[in-house]
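thought: user wants a sequence for this fold. calling inverse folding tool.
action: design(structure=
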């Protein structure tokens, strides 16, 4: 997550539709569009207006908003799909339900691993269960996934264990920064390095550190990009990148940075670690659910074609 000045004079190729339909109910799904998917979740979610590279920080992707309007009254999903799902399960299916189902089924590493051969070619395919109970399970898991990805800003439900605000791990599992681990602020310069010790489960940032960071949190990747390293790359002392080929030299604006480590950085890092820890904890349940969906009854392509959702006669 990054701050930006929402001014078309500063944003490269702003997308008017994304900005026009932004609201405190909007949720964006982003997925790879130009590159093969390597590992990690097949898609990610955000409550913030995403940029072209939101999915993994580079490579380009595609944005799919849940709503086609800022008032969140027009789903960005075909009504025929929602009708087909409702008929199949014998219960009402909302746009949020379908969106959450996608998150529960696809936003985890087991999906990417299971369909690795297919994902060499860009483009994602979603298995649609014909089992109402499995749909409900995926819907429940998916709502937690979206809640986590959006840092508690979307699909919050206190009764379901998803209070509004930054998600938190149970106290015994939570990463924490001891008083002696505080990262020195200005006049000390920004940290230059971030390292991890799996034996002590300590994440060191310059002269400071955070304890109780599991190897799974540290290793969490989205299509080949380590999330924690990517996060730190925007906040370290030297943010320059090597010039490859004919790429333009770095802008002098890159030299503008805080005089030292900000307390907001520490808060954001701890929030991120809590999110990663909870995502990792959900992965076994998501993997088991995906197996059950793929081995159980699925809605066939013929049903989608009959509902007018598939025009290509060769699709399967």
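)
observation: tool returned 316 residues.
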């Amino acid at each position: 997550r990054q701050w930006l000045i929402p001014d078309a004079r500063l944003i490269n190729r702003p997308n008017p539709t994304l900005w026009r339909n932004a609201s405190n109910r909007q949720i964006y799904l982003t997925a790879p569009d130009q590159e093969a998917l390597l590992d990690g979740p097949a898609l990610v979610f955000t409550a913030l207006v995403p940029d072209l590279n939101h999915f993994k920080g580079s490579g380009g992707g595609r944005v799919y908003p849940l709503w086609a309007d800022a008032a969140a009254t027009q789903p960005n999903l075909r009504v025929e799909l929602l009708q087909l799902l409702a008929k199949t399960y014998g219960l009402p299916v909302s746009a949020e339900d379908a969106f959450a189902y996608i998150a529960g089924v696809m936003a985890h590493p087991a999906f990417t691993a299971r369909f690795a051969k297919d994902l060499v070619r860009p483009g994602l395919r979603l298995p649609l269960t014909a089992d109402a109970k499995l749909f409900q399970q995926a819907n429940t898991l998916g709502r937690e996934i979206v809640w986590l990805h959006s840092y508690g800003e979307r699909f919050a439900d206190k009764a379901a264990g998803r209070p509004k605000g930054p998600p938190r791990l149970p106290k015994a599992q939570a990463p924490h920064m001891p008083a002696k681990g505080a990262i020195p602020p200005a006049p000390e310069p920004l940290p230059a390095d971030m390292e991890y010790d799996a034996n002590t489960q300590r994440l060191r940032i310059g002269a400071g550190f955070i304890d109780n960071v599991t190897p799974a949190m540290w290793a969490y990747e989205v299509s080949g990009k380590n999330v924690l390293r990517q996060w730190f790359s925007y906040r370290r002392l030297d943010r320059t990148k090597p010039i490859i080929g004919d790429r333009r030299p770095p802008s002098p604006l890159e030299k503008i940075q805080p005089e030292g480590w900000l307390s907001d950085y520490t808060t954001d890092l701890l929030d991120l670690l809590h999110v990663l820890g909870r995502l990792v904890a959900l992965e076994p349940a998501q993997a088991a659910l995906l197996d059950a969906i793929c081995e159980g009854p699925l809605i066939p392509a013929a049903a989608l074609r009959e509902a007018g959702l598939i025009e290509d006669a060769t699709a399967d």
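thought: summarizing for user.
answer: Here is the designed sequence. The mean pLDDT is 93.
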